[in-house]
Amino acid sequence: MNDILTEIPFNEIPGLRTGHAQDNEGITGCTVLLADTDMAAAVDVRGGGPASRETELLSPTASCERIHALLLGGGSAFGLRAAEGVMRYLEERGRGFDTGFAFVPLVCASCLYDLGIGAPGARPDADMGYAACLDTSRNSADCGNVGAGTGCTVGKLGGAATMMKSGLGFYAVRTGEVMVGAVVAVNALGDIFDIETGRQTAGMLSPDGRSFASSERALFRTCAERADNLFTGNTTIGAVVTNACFDKSRLKKIAAMAHNGFARTIRPVHTSADGDSIYALSTGSLRANLDAVGTLAAYVMGKAVNRAVLSARGMAGCPAACDLPF
Fold first, then answer.
1. Is 150 exposed, middle or buried (0-12, 13-18, 19+ CB in 10 A)?
2. Least C-beta-crowded within 10 Å: which of 51, 63, 251, 306?
3. In the prediction, which pLDDT does 53 show?
4. 167 within 8 A of 146, measured Cβ to Cβ
């Protein structure tokens, strides 16, 4: 697709800035996408166990049309507190929805479960959310063990002994004047596959750690079991961003199509033990074809998933793709 698409840095997409904060000892963190003014937004949740905040604002029937920030974080439901720091940062700068008595920042958030790899008591809090906002001055698109990706792992169907380290990934493209990018924290129950070749790049390891095991095959073997006993410490969360102009009902469709990027790179995905959620954000005024942007959203999301895994470093005895002997 090189004759149609040009890869660009994610932070070239106008209208928002990204920042990160993390606790490398506790192994958790958060990432914030901060709108320069505000942005249209929608969300599509496919996993069975999401941890989220203010997502009802994004319903097509809700009166809210635009939000001011999106937070992605670790810490499971505890990590949602980091959004308080984002609100504090925005309020100090007079940003938010004008109620006539105060400016109320509208901040949506989703968090993933990373309590099992680091210190269980280490979770993103309001101070960490505030620090991530301060970091937006760098407008960083760092990948790997950073921000919401700090405590991410994949391939957890066999438990902690055979899982692998993952992280945060960014990927963006331009076609003509239209830009579409994705950011994702990959914390999946399943295995990871290259979107271009279908080759497995990370996931559940064999007991000796010298090859991949298949999470799908392992799951198939449980079909006759009545109990739902999947390891629940999962959830892949992310966002697609475009400089094209869409309202939140159309962004909802784009977010739904972006889940195809998960389906092409994560197997199994969207299980009851995952909380997989994708936001779609519009920061610009360009007119663009909805289905073309949605299809691009799936592609850049899949590429971001791959980058998250390949950029990660091993931590706490959990190997990353760069550590594999095969």
1. buried
2. 63
3. 95
4. yes
Among 80, 97, 84, 86, residue whose Cα is nearest residue 32 = 86
Phi, psi of 288 (to 5 degrees): -155, 160
90/22 Cα distance (integer angstroms): 20
> How far apart, in whole angstroms, are the C-alpha atoms of residue 97 and residue 106?
7
pLDDT at site 106: 97
Q: pLDDT higher for 1 or 115?
A: 115
pLDDT score, position 1: 58
Q: Tell me how far apart the terminal alpha carbons of the chain are, to the nearest angstrom.
A: 29
CA-wise closest residue to 126 among 86, 92, 91: 86
Q: Using the structure block, give the residue that is written with the tokens 């001011």.
A: 68
Q: Give the per-residue SS3 of the chain.
A: CCCCCEEECHHHCCCEEEEEEEECCCCEEEEEEEEEEEEEEEEEECCCCCEEECHHHHCCCCCCCCEEEEEEECCHHHHHHHHHHHHHHHHHCCCCEECCCCEECCEEEEECCCCCCCCCCCCCCHHHHHHHHHHCCCCCCCCECCHHHCCCEECCCCCHHHCEECCEEEEEEEECCEEEEEEEECCCCCEEECCCCCCEEECCECCCCCCECCHHHHHHCCCCCCCCCCCCCCCCEEEEEEEECCCHHHHHHHHHHHHHHHHHHEECCCCCCCCCEEEEEEEEEECCCHHHHHHHHHHHHHHHHHHHHHHCCCECCECCHHHCCC
> What mean pLDDT comes out for the span 51-58?
94
